[in-house]
Design goal:
The protein is α+β, with helices and mostly antiparallel strands and 175 residues long. The chain has four helices and eight strands. Strand 5 and strand 6 form a beta hairpin. The radius of gyration is 26 Å and the shape is elongated.
Length: 175
């Protein structure tokens, strides 16, 4: 029998890659209390979750303000909307806030209380609503705002935050 030619062995060189294998990317990083508070302070919009009478969540996008010192989220609403009615029945609430990228978020959970409707321009509720705005340079504009919150029957939803959590996914930039 003729001899089979042999192929010389090809040396294998180990390869190193900075890319993780598929499915083995970085794990989410838990945000610190300071990072969570900063995220809440730097955003204006979030998704407020309340509980429907069926037990299902009710989600709505809201404009909010964050008081880091007192750990209170404030949301303006009108007295006749669904959010205040649900929160008076079941005060469990959460506010989800998107971070600066799609891979980070913060959630502020707690019990909500709903104020009485603003009744007179300059009452405690209307002044609290005013404190949630950047303010007005013109006294007439401020007076119009205070009159409007009374006409709208605006309330303040206050969530006293008992749990604050969130994560970020630190993905290196490609390019």
């Amino acid at each position: 029998m003729p001899a089979h030619p042999t192929t010389p062995a090809t040396p294998t060189t180990p390869t190193t890659t900075t890319e993780p294998p598929p499915g083995a990317g970085p794990a989410p990083r838990v945000l610190t209390g300071e990072e969570l508070s900063r995220l809440l302070a730097n955003q204006q919009f979030g998704v407020l979750a309340s509980v429907r009478s069926t037990g299902h969540p009710h989600l709505t996008t809201v404009l909010y303000s964050w008081d880091a010192e007192d750990r209170v989220v404030r949301v303006s609403s009108t007295a006749d909307r669904l959010k205040p009615r649900q929160l008076r029945t079941d005060p469990h609430a959460a506010l989800h806030v998107q971070g600066p990228d799609p891979f980070s978020f913060a959630v502020a959970e707690g019990e909500a209380e709903v104020s009485a409707a603003a009744a007179v321009p300059g009452d405690a509720v209307s002044l609290e609503l005013l404190s949630m705005t950047p303010g007005f340079e013109d006294q007439d504009a401020e007076a119009a705002f205070l009159a409007q919150v009374v006409a709208d029957r605006r309330v303040v939803i206050r969530i006293r935050v008992s749990r604050l959590y969130g994560t970020a996914l630190d993905i290196p930039a490609t390019g």
